[in-house]
Input
Amino acid sequence: MMAAHAGRTRRRTVKGQQGVTLFGLMFWALLIGFGAYVGIRVFPTVNEYLTIQSSVEKIARAQPATVAEARQAFDKQKDIEYSISSISGKDLIVTKENDRVVVAYAYDKLVPIYGPVYILIKYEGRSR
Output
């Protein structure tokens, strides 16, 4: 009786064991590694976008009198913030809405991944 019971217990434990195969481990390591690589390549462009957005907000809060003045202020900000390289003051769209200056922008960024493979990211924003 004890032998039959011990046999059933052993079968249940063998059947209940699970794990990750070497192929599965390599697959997930490759997938996570590729995701991290793409993230590292894309992060500087996101940082640049946030810096541009911050600069545009600062310029709009100052309420420049002319379009040229707004563009010149952005170019000065660009000289201070070394991370801005994708656009300049001439790329800004400066308008007035309800007697407030609104500064908008849009640009594309190509992120090289490997050889001829790139990721195209389209950024756009405007002051509030």
User: Anything to note?
Assistant: The CA atoms of residues 48 and 82 lie 9 Å apart. Residues 21-126 form one domain. The chain has three helices and three strands.
